[in-house]
Amino acid sequence: MLLNYIKIAWKVLLRHPFYTFITLFGISLTLTVLMVLTSFLDHLLGGHYPENKRDRSLYVMLMVQRDSSLTGRNSGPMSFKFLTNYAKTLESPERVTIFSAFNSSNAYVGSQKIKLNTKFTDADFWQVMDFEFLEGKPYTEQHIRNGSYVVVITDGFKKQYFENTNEPVVGKDVEIEGIHYKVIGVVKGSPVTRPITYADVFFPYTAPKSNYQRSGLRGGFMSVILAKDKSDLVAVRNEFQGRIDRIPLPGVEDGFKYAQLEAKAEPYAENFIGQILDGGPGLKTIFFGIIAFVLFMLLGLPAINLVNVNVSRIMERASEIGIRKAFGAPVKTLVWQFIVENIFITFLGGAIALILTLIVIHLINSSGWIAYADLTINVNVFLISLLVCLVFGLLSGVLPALRMSKLNIAEALKS
Question: Is the pLDDT of residue 308 over 70?
């Protein structure tokens, strides 16, 4: 029966090329936008180079201190000392890395100034993250203990700083902010949409201007805690939270008296969205309002337009409907037939949208709009796209099918 419905839908498509074009154009354009958006969200929140281990990582990005009246608050990254005491010493994780938010520095090639994003890290950073080393290797604990002036640079900075990019640069000198460093490794860069690993130059945390010796709880550092397995995430989170709960309260930080202290170890997506939702009721309203508006514009309006097209298309088949009703076809069967037909048409539009999405993603990746962009149609994106096709087909097919089911047999046969 299902195969017969699909055959009927195909013949109907061939019968009315104009309606077919309008229908498939609307479906494919809408689904293309949704697929590209889904791919970008996966690019933003999923586990991709060099953060391939996000599925078993917890991120400690922010400390929040509130006063006793809960009207005042301080928030921001933590000190290296705090993370060393409360994260680095955890017993349950496989590894813990501490690193800074990216900073700004300058390098000069002749009279040309190169603006750099820089990051200070420990040696474990290179074990938690999966950077591809094009040359050399990362700095080690020995380099850090010795206070060595070494750096790991990206291939992008290499192209800007060195004249001959075809020659190896490991062992060569780079001057940044008037200080000379030896290049120990060159990595493939990370896109700016991954702020944890995005930088042009990576320094050991003992390098000048890192402020790693700052006392107190707050500073300029963050941490990623790598669990041994995804199943260990809850235990790791509980161990970290247990240590945070033992911090003496109240306290004073830079003149601010706080009665509550919050520092969470969370998966990346929770951390990313949590920082938005923690901005207060106003920001929450704006955030969810934007999401609702985008979904309505991308899914609701096209579905409404497609409903109108489908109603016109179905009404042209009124005589067919009348004959089938006259021969005893139940309403449920007729409704189901038209819903299946519409889902089939939607999936045809989805196939076209998939091809268009691959083209758009290729253009984005190769355009340079986002350096090192690596948008893809992976399994997650594909499955979400299939779900969107199904929902879209149902949204645009149920109402016309119900409208059709209410047709009177006599009126239908007159059409």
Answer: no
